[in-house]
Amino acid sequence: MSGALGHLRIIDFSDSLAGQYCARLFADHGASVMLVEPSAGSPVRRMAPFSSSGESLLFFHLNTGKQSLALDRDSEEGAATLRTMLAGADVAILPPDVDPDAISEDNPHCVVVQPSLFGSEGPRAGWQGPEIVLQALSGMMHNNGAGGREPLFGTGNRAALASGVGAYIGALAALYARENIGRGQVVRIDAAETAASMCFPYVMQHIYNGTVRQRTEQAVQAGQVLCRDGWVCIWVYNFRWHALLKALDLLELEFDARFADPAIRRENWEALFAIIQAKVSQMPAEDLVEILQQAQVIAAKAYRPSELIGNRHLAARDYWDEVNGKRVLGPAFRLGAAPRQLQGGAPALGEGAVPSWPAPSLPDAGSVGGRPIEGLRVIELTTAWAGPMSGRVLAYLGAESIHVEAPNRVNSWRLNKDKPNPINFPDFKPGDRWYDRSFLFNSQNVNKLSCILNLKTEEGRATLRRLVAVADVVVCNFRPGTLKKLGLDYQSLTSIKPDIIVAELPAFGTFGPMSGYAALGPTMEMATGMSAMIGYPGGQPEVTGPSYLDPIGGFNAAAAILTALVYRQRTGQGQYVEVPQVEAAMQLIGAEILKAGETDADPEPNGNRVEFASPHDAFPARGEDQWIAIAALDEQQWRRLCEAMGTPELAEDPRFSSLGRRRDNEGELTRIIASWTARHDKHELASRLQAQGVAAAPVQTPKDLAEDPYLAHRGFFTELDHPDAGRHRHPGLPIHLSLTPGAQLRSAPPFGRHNRHVLETILKLSPDEIVAIEASDAMATEPLEGA
């Protein structure tokens, strides 16, 4: 029973990346995990990338710490063995072709998790979903790459593995609920819906005012320069303009008419970065990043995956592990009271024995209803995306989440640092309370309460301490050390609430040479090694989303907090939780990092083209900036694509008759396919190709997502009223529990709307105490000027 989840027994007979990553997270934290495979082995064993010995590094990465049992589930003996195992399992992770309701009915103690691509019924059920299809449908791909060129899908299998994190979150929530309702339930999650949930702010923007965000808008605040040994991404906030120029010894530009005003500066962005490029071209990239970070300017080197192996910061954090002589990525998150427990490497096929697990001991059945973690209280000291996203997931699952801001330091997504831009508001109207009408803040803070406390005042800190005394979780995504400076660090808070769980989301961790670096989604994508694998041939590294790693960070933080909550439920012990967002995100390209570490070679960015399939790209469709993603994943799909194009003879053309030849002649192949796709509607053509067995998808815009029939069928959108922004559909989350489902019940809170509720109802303060706090500098109902 070592590790946070050492009391749990997991059967993983999924055959998907999502299912196997979900089970890997359980194994990381001590659970006993049995991977049940067919006699030929899991199909993931045959997926690239491969080690020099021919082993699938993807399988190794997803299955470290498990045992393997080869089993014919269709045979009488295999079915009987499976029934025996299910009788003692806490969690069963299923493939899409097994009925989860039947498994749950026969094994009411068991939490039954079923990840899938598109679900077992409804629009797109049966569609093929490689990563390029998931990213095309999600709305993310539409944002990636250069205007006028094919959009980029990204790299690796990030959408599929993100849905594995979501499956783990759902499973933990169901396990937590099991102690209250006395039984398990079914958890369903789709990779396609998960991928859409990573991009929902821009769908919300479209719902607010019809805006369709374009790829040309991505470089408004960021740019890249090529240093002596690599690329560096620099994020230029207007309020850090002087700091940037001083750090680079370019103060003369402060008076340059091309750059003095932010709006004009954006028009001369290329000229600005040409000047910066000339200044830094001979500098080591890490030196430039250090200079800028010391000036509190956000920047990051675009590390190549192979550079991560000897990275000084990761080495100082003792990040890398080794199992049976093989390198293993470090944990996605670190639990202070129950560190990760590695239990061996990836298993050989069938090396495990049938486990003899006794039936789990459960409490008497309680009433079923409500949400899975109702009764828990979360204090959010967060801003922007990743931190609030973690609180939003917990609030969706039933926690009471109190979003705490200071009157002079409000959530940056309220957009009150700059003059309100109409593009961010309903019907393009900022209104009197524009800080309550931003699509960004309102997309991310559904279900929450708003309490304004100035933590730089003793009254504000004292009020927060009183809140901690009646809370379960404190989550913070400020710079490391901020809580300690305020006297609100974990050790201080345990003196108030011994079983409190404190989770911090530092980009680079709480210690190490880069621990003090600030970051955003794009710069974290650079630091993980992802951006170096994304781009056009010969071009600079690209970022996706533009902030893909922010929602991923929120998912990882929610997973970490739920792991700690399940541990506390069993032991009564709280703990400190560290979620280094860069390290957590590295898991999504773990196999690619391991490959680069073994070969000391990095994949060269090549648009959407990959080694394992051709064609595998985005092609123009009918209309302006309309695209369709198409991937022929094997020779049969290639032949079906040729038939769909009306050119079956193309399959036998010597230039294209094998994968290797198609890859050698990809330029010509792209031209042939593009001339055909350009005549067709992207939605109609994708549906037709999928019906014929070819992986394809429209590259969807925010407008497409708002009207998407698959998301509508999934109930992805919930209409909510906001007192300042009005009634709108709000994008949801992809985690579906059968007995205690999550829900979106309230729109994001107006600034300070729940101050009195917190003081009166939650803290139960006297009328005199309430009057004193409300009259002090500790509390406000409007942001201070320039906050």
TrEMBL record:
GO terms for molecular function: transferase activity. The keyword Chloroplast does not apply. SUPFAM superfamilies: CoA-transferase family III (CaiB/BaiF) (SSF89796). Transmembrane segments: none annotated. Gene3D superfamilies: Crotonobetainyl-coa:carnitine coa-transferase, domain 1 (3.40.50.10540), formyl-coa transferase, domain 3 (3.30.1540.10). Pfam families: CoA_transf_3 (PF02515). Keywords: Transferase. PANTHER family: L-CARNITINE COA-TRANSFERASE, SUCCINYL-COA--D-CITRAMALATE COA-TRANSFERASE. This is CaiB/BaiF CoA transferase family protein. It comes from Devosia honganensis. The lineage of its organism: Bacteria, Pseudomonadati, Pseudomonadota, Alphaproteobacteria, Hyphomicrobiales.
